[in-house]
Amino acid sequence: MKKPLKILHTSDTHLGDPYGHSSSEKSFKNVLDAVDSTQANFLLIVGDVFDNERVSDECLQFFISQVSRTNIPIIILPGNHDLMHSKSVYKRSVFSDSPKNLYIFKNPEGEEIQFTAYGISFWGKAMQEHSPEFQPMTNISFKNTDYWKVALAHGQFEDEKINSGRSSLIFPNHIAESGCDYVALGHWDSFTNVSQKNIPAYYSGCPTKLSNQKTGMVSIITMDPSDGVSHTRFALKS
After folding, report:
1. How far apart, in whole angstroms, are the C-alpha atoms of residue 182 and residue 159?
2. Which pLDDT does position 22 carry in this prediction?
3. Distance of alpha carbon 176 from its chain centroid, rounded?
4. Where are the alpha helices (DSSP H) in the chain?
5. Distance between CA 198 and CA 178 in Å, rounded?
6. The pLDDT of residue 119 is above 90
């Protein structure tokens, strides 16, 4: 049974990047602070949690320490910087005994993570290779259609007519025909609305402050059985 829920959606935190996302650790702390201040029920991090598979053990311990600050489920979808392959950062020893509230998509064919108590299901494909053959939103399937249905996808949104040949493409019909209540996207640093028909779909953007912002931002998704799904942006601490 669907229950009223609030989801905090972010992506592209790029922990361990000293250059393009040099304030990533501070931004990630701000995201966890926002979990408390917004009273979110779930935190979604849609790809590129880490900048690369060679990040230090200290970086991984920092991540685990932040995840441990909250009891709410934190759901991670690997992206093109933190691929789920044989040398994946997620296969390092620190993740063998990770916090019980941490959930990581691991199946490249797609899998579902259900939370019966909340009446919600999350679906995502763990990226093994960032290639034109990989399409993050094909073959979506949910076992219980009475639950809230949320897809996570890390990739490049574009119209099929463009035919760019880029990797990990997400096409408008993938969203429009997904049957989801919300599509949480990652891969772009900037916030972007790519909703299709009646299905809300957003790139949350990275939580690090961009040049045109006063603070970093995240997305807040409110799901209500009576009022439906709504999206707002939430300003993090400066």
Report:
1. 20
2. 66
3. 19
4. 24-38, 57-67, 172-176
5. 11
6. yes
| 52-74 pLDDT, tens digit each | 999 999 999 999 999 999 999 99
**What six digits make up the tokens of 166?**
């880029």
pLDDT computed for residue 43 by the predictor:
98
**Residue bearing the bigger pLDDT, 39 or 237:** 39
Single-letter amino acid, residue 124: G
Structure tokens at 219: 């997305």
Q: Catalogue all structural domains in the chain, each as residue range(s) with its CATH number.
A: 5-235 (3.60.21.10)
140/173 Cα distance (integer angstroms): 12
State whether residue 196 is helix, strand or coil: strand
- Residues 152 and 183: their CA atoms lie apart, in Å, by 6
Lookup: tokens for 223: 């799901």
CA distances from 24 to 15, 69, 113 (A): 5, 17, 27
Tell me the pTM: 0.96
